[in-house]
Every structure is written in structure tokens, then in C-alpha cells.
Amino acid sequence: MKLEHIGIAVKNLKDSNLLFERLFGQPSYKVERVDSENVSTSFFEVGESKVELLEATNEDSTITKFIEKNGEGIHHMAFEVEDIHAEMKRLEGEGFQLINKEPKRGADNKLVCFLHPKSSNGVLVELCQEIKV
């Protein structure tokens, strides 16, 4: 449906929040810990999209490994979908490799799943669907 957010791996969420507050001229609208992913996140609204900062909460986090290998920077691109299950099935049928076979709860009230970068030109792609209450 649209580019929902761009995820940026950071070493220090507090310092990065200050940097991005200066960049965007506004504060983060949400800081959230996602224990299932071993990250703390912070979200900024930028027009119709968002920027998500991700800080590892422990050494087992994929963000820790990403920063060790690549340094801080763009980690993933997330696209909003209407039906995450249908989109996962469609993309798998198109030959994309799913990292997780079932969507899981992510930050910012979303169900999420990821496509392996090996199947998408080196880009980690996240699909996300708003959880309807």
C-alpha cells in the first residue's frame, strides 16, 4: 500500500533521538521496547511515512550483529499491507524467501514479517499490517 517506515540501526537510542529531533524539527512520537526482537525503538513521523530507530537491548539482537558487520545505518524498509497472510503467500509464490513463516507482533501496533535480503537484492524488507483492535 505504501512505504510505512525505514528502519535505522543505531548504537545509542537516546543520542540518536536527539540527532533526529534536530534533523526533523520534532520529537519522536513513540519509544517502545520490543522484547521478542531484543530492541528498543523510537518512531518519527515524516510526511506519510515514518523513520524507526532501532537499538539492540542485548548481544543476541539482530541489530547488534548488523552494527558489528555494517555499522550504524539503514537496516530495513517496511511496507504496509492490507492482509499480511495473503501477501506472504503471494511473495513466497513469487520466489521470495520469508525469514519467518508466520507474522509476529512488532513495534507500533503492527503484525510483521521479513523477507530475506538474499531474495530481494540485499534489502531486508518488512511487511507490516496494523493490528485492528
Q: What does this molecule look like?
A:
- This protein is an alpha+beta fold and 133 residues long.
- 23% of the residues lie in helices and 40% in strands.
- The protein is built from 3 helices and 8 strands.
- Strand 6 and strand 7 form a beta hairpin.
- The longest helix is centred in the N-terminal third of the chain and has 12 residues.
- The radius of gyration is 14 Å and the shape is globular.
Walk me through the topology:
Elements: E1 2-10, H1 13-24, E2 30-34, E3 39-46, E4 49-56, H2 62-70, E5 73-80, H3 84-93, E6 104-106, E7 110-115, E8 125-130
Parallel strand pairs: 1-4, 5-8
Antiparallel strand pairs: 1-5, 2-3, 3-4, 6-7, 7-8
Please provide a brief summary of the model.
It contains three helices and eight strands; from the N terminus they run E-H-E-E-E-H-E-H-E-E-E. With 133 residues, the chain is α+β, with helices and mostly antiparallel strands.
Given the C-alpha coordinates, what overall shape results?
globular
Could you state the order of secondary-structure elements as H and E? Answer: EHEEEHEHEEE
Task: Count the DSSP helices.
Answer: 3
The helix-and-strand class reads alpha+beta
Number of strands: 8
Based on CA atoms alone, the radius of gyration comes out at 14 Å
Biggest beta-sheet profile: 8 strands, mixed
Tell me the strand percentage band: 35-45%
* pLDDT < 50 stretches: none
Q: State the distance separating the first and last CA atoms.
A: 20 Å
Mean pLDDT: 96
- Strand arrangement across the biggest beta sheet: 2-3-4-1-5-8-7-6
Helix content: 10-25%
